[in-house]
Amino acid sequence: MEMNIALLPGDGIGPEVIAQAVKVVNAIGKKFGHNISYKEGLVGACAIDATGDPYPDATHEICAGSDAVLFGAIGDPKYDNDPKAKVRPEQGLLRMRQKLGLFANVRPTFTFPSLVHKSPLKLDRVDGVDFVFFRELTGGVYFGEPRGRNEQGTKAFDTNVYSKEEIVRLARMGFEAAQGRRKLLTCVDKANVMATSRLWRETVQELAPEYPDVKVEYEFVDAVAMRLIQWPKAYDVLITENLFGDILTDEASVISGSMGLMPSASLGSKVKLFEPIHGSYPQAAGKDIANPLATVLSAAMMFDYAFGLKAEAQAISDVVNLSLAEGYVTEDIADGGKAYKTSEVGDWLAAKIL
Amino acid sequence: MEMNIALLPGDGIGPEVIAQAVKVVNAIGKKFGHNISYKEGLVGACAIDATGDPYPDATHEICAGSDAVLFGAIGDPKYDNDPKAKVRPEQGLLRMRQKLGLFANVRPTFTFPSLVHKSPLKLDRVDGVDFVFFRELTGGVYFGEPRGRNEQGTKAFDTNVYSKEEIVRLARMGFEAAQGRRKLLTCVDKANVMATSRLWRETVQELAPEYPDVKVEYEFVDAVAMRLIQWPKAYDVLITENLFGDILTDEASVISGSMGLMPSASLGSKVKLFEPIHGSYPQAAGKDIANPLATVLSAAMMFDYAFGLKAEAQAISDVVNLSLAEGYVTEDIADGGKAYKTSEVGDWLAAKIL
Ligand SMILES: CC(C)[C@H](C(=O)O)[C@@H](O)C(=O)O
Ligand SMILES: CC(C)[C@H](C(=O)O)[C@@H](O)C(=O)O
């Protein structure tokens, strides 16, 4: 197969982890006979530094012309504590999501037996956890207008807004995913307070009869924030709006003990995007110590979701499991054993595939 | 001292737990020579059922004329899954907060040595946790206008809005609390996305020089949702807006293993309100099995925060600790030992005080 992949390494450790994913993708290409070409684009703080724009048109063209985007991470502390900064790296990310039509962020949470002891939760709570969030990614308070300040600057406001269609298309993805899993869908909202949440709940209630095999539960976001920690095994598929999804998927990311390994996919249009859920981790940038496995597993998701190539995806998962079993891993999960460099792990994975 | 207390038992287990707090408050009154009188009001689902209004004027008059309000819980499942319901119990709660000017919700999280093993977190993560949230309670998306639907009903919107003054008064409470504690203040926001959050961060940055002994940290709400679970001991005082506070304080409530014991205070005006953080727990209503200790400890907070009576507050904490030590507790924390009824625990506590 011909594959045109856009590479967006981004900031911090982004370039280092993307480099390892590329090694793995190339090895898969070689082994399975795919013809893979890459185009690289700037995004985030590095794009601001180079062009003044966190998502330059040139980058968008590369992405829009690709089959799939592999994304590293963005964010730089120098922009975070300046609330008056006019351009922020995150704006690039948001514009990218919107312009590419990536309205669904898919974030699985699952455990690796060899890592679950690193969870902050007790083993019996988290052992075997397996759920997936479908977070709406191009609506809500992230994009709603009006937003800003009054003239004197003494008052600020944001608008959360959702249309029925935005909810329907995200919810359908959740229902379909649930049909292929344990058939439980949890709709997360704040319908006791917010008008947008009431439209979410109402819309999901209307769709539910079309999926009679799926059990639907409705829970308030505050209750889910509790129960995710208390009984994470109770969940299967969760659907929610953009801001709640931001908070809850990050909360969820720490419970398995494998945060450095969690991949994600952003879907919704022809071009799909794949990225690790961790951030740009600026303290580690350039040190060749960051864990590349989340990005490598995001590449596995890419073969599956973007190209429908399950064997290729499986081959990557297998080799990641092998690296865990043999302890060929970075220091964050080395557990007192020998720690390997980011680049060494990438080389090892690629060599094992071939 | 003369004390006029408004009692708002509310729904579900509310009346049962409030009844135990009253026994304890009366015992304290007798022992320390206070003259305590009560007026009871309806709020929540029971108020809708009786009057059509979840926060009737008569209830507001009782609260506004009191020195302090002791609140149970509200909420009834029959209203939750009807997104088109015109009147909801929660509206009563929100109107009450606003009309009484209760702009700051104070929620401590701390551990009881005898209960910390019930935490879903590993002991070393949670042992000795001690932080407190100051959640803004009368602003943000809970009250912002406009909110609602477009004419066709196909689009819904909410408005989040904050003025500088609303942020200043809440933040000052947080700074002052930090000065009396470990001198660390965490400002929780989403300043990389939301205009309101940028005003929060900017305002807190402006206030910080007035409190040179307090170290201020700024963290995004999604990062806090993670770190609360990973390193809860890292926090001291956290300040945040209404919706983030709703989600994060509930998340925080499960980490100590003592959720059934966590009290809260709502401050901001002459009349202060005290309530357990748990909900109305409708499945347990009327069974005399609910844990009354959170409500009893809320009464302790009342003596301290509303009346400045620290010895009285301490006497209540002491007797609660005694009930834990002697295992005179309800089934949720009986741990295989004998479980006592809600009413028995209340009687026991009152008797021990006298
Ligand atoms: C960087 C930030 C704008 C972004 C978001 O809030 O969506 C991030 O937290 C994420 O979840 O991808
Ligand atoms: C019942 C609901 C409206 C309320 C809130 O969201 O404030 C509750 O969750 C709380 O935290 O007191």
TrEMBL record, chains A, B:
Its EC number is 1.1.1.85. The keyword Magnesium applies. SUPFAM superfamilies: Isocitrate/Isopropylmalate dehydrogenase-like. It is found in: Cytoplasm. Its cofactor is Mg(2+); Mn(2+). Substrate binds at residues 97, 107, 135, 222. Binds 1 Mg(2+) or Mn(2+) ion per subunit. Catalyzes the oxidation of 3-carboxy-2-hydroxy-4-methylpentanoate (3-isopropylmalate) to 3-carboxy-4-methyl-2-oxopentanoate. The product decarboxylates to 4-methyl-2 oxopentanoate. This is 3-isopropylmalate dehydrogenase. The gene is leuB.
